[in-house]
Amino acid sequence: MRESYRGQCNLHLHFAKQFLTSLDQEPEARWGGHYARAMADAVVWQLQLSYRAHLADMLTQQPKFPQQLPKGDYFACDFKASELPPELLELADRERHTPWLRAMVSERFINHPGAAVTVEVSGLIAKDSLATHSQGAGELEEWLEELNSLIARHRATLMEY
């Protein structure tokens, strides 16, 4: 069976939802206290993959705008053609100006020594976490809902073409 970009988008959305459920259900102490970070990173990674597959689907479903997909990691702002589908132009703008999408596409997963650190104090135990990994389950759930809504709206628009 041949894979489609739309199918891959749906699959990665499903995986993101599953990882988010695991994040909510597992105890914080699992994996030496790193379980929450591992699951949060897994959710963000699956959301990024779903978003990239959605971009590819949008581009390949509109033959009026022939364009090659960039190699490797890409987001809407990486497309350079003068003529792009209006949905990709919208997403390129939203990647710069919409807080949840900007945060999702800018996540790079690697903590750099010397980066800003936030400290959570709970009783007598303090837990360090870098600001780049501060997404909680609530924020990630918002990202998932927003991405689902965005994809549904774009797919409805494609049906009009």
Task: Name the descriptors.
single chain, 161 residues, 5 helices, 57% helix
Describe the overall structure.
This protein has 161 residues and is mostly helical. It has one domain (5-110, 136-160). It is built from five helices and two strands. The protein has helices spanning 5-25, 35-60, 86-97, 99-106, 137-160; strands at residues 117-122, 125-130. The protein has a two-stranded antiparallel sheet with strand order 1-2. Helix 2 packs parallel to helix 5 (137-160) and helix 3 crosses helix 4. The chain is globular, with a radius of gyration of 18 Å. The two termini are 27 Å apart.
Q: Sum up the overall morphology in one term.
A: globular
The major beta sheet can be summarized as:
2 strands, antiparallel
Give the % helix: 55-70%
Radius of gyration: 18 Å
Query: In what range is the share of β-strand residues?
Result: 5-15%
- Structural class based on helices, strands and sheet pairing: mainly alpha
Average predicted local confidence, pLDDT: 84
Succession of helices and strands: HHHHEEH
How many structural domains can be distinguished in the coordinates?
A: 1
* Poorly predicted spans: 121-133
Number of helices: 5
Read across the widest sheet, the strand sequence of neighbours is 1-2
Strand elements, count: 2
In whole angstroms, how far apart are the ends? Answer: 27 Å
